[in-house]
Specification:
With 137 residues, this protein is mostly helical. It folds into 2 domains: 1-38; 39-136, High mobility group box domain (DNA Binding (I), subunit A), CATH 1.10.30.10. It has helices at residues 6-38, 48-55, 63-76, 79-110, 118-136. Residues 25-41 have a biased composition (Basic and acidic residues). InterPro entries: HMG_box_dom. Residues 13-24 have a biased composition (Basic residues).
């Protein structure tokens, strides 16, 4: 029977710690995602290919085969045939960002800054501070 060297032991401990931290991060990400869904965060729309893919009939094909077939069809389409999907994707994206902005404003009013996109938190916090200062005056 072999014994474990101190170096091997420290490596094993580090790996265990890394695995535990990875699981914790995964749990935190899932918890954050679920919390956003609970508060009614709008879902991001698909891109042009996704819209094209959803317009096709899968039939008897397995998902992997169906995706390959859809990708082949998409690449064989010309720009003119792809344009409606790109236009629809752009409209959906604009609509999504409008809804997202409204949702983030609601979350800021409710004090749920942790649910807002990080790059927008500062703006909403500053806005809230300004409103608080105006109410005090």
């Amino acid at each position: 029977m072999k014994t474990v060297t101190p170096k091997q032991l420290s490596t094993m401990k580090r790996l265990k710690k890394d695995i535990r931290q990875k699981k914790e991060r995964r749990y935190e990400n899932k918890r954050g995602r679920l919390e956003k869904e609970e508060h009614g965060k709008p879902r991001a729309p698909g891109n042009a290919f996704f819209l094209f893919w959803m317009s096709l009939d899968q039939g008897e094909l397995r998902r992997k085969e169906f995706l390959k077939e859809a990708a082949r069809k998409w690449s064989s389409l010309g720009e003119e045939d792809q344009r409606p999907f790109f236009e629809r994707a752009d409209k959906l994206r604009e609509q999504y960002f409008g809804e997202l902005k409204e949702w983030e404003a609601q979350m800021a009013k409710a004090g749920n800054f942790h649910l807002i996109r990080p790059q927008h938190r500062v703006v909403y916090k500053l806005f809230q501070v300004q409103q608080d200062n105006q109410q005090e005056d």
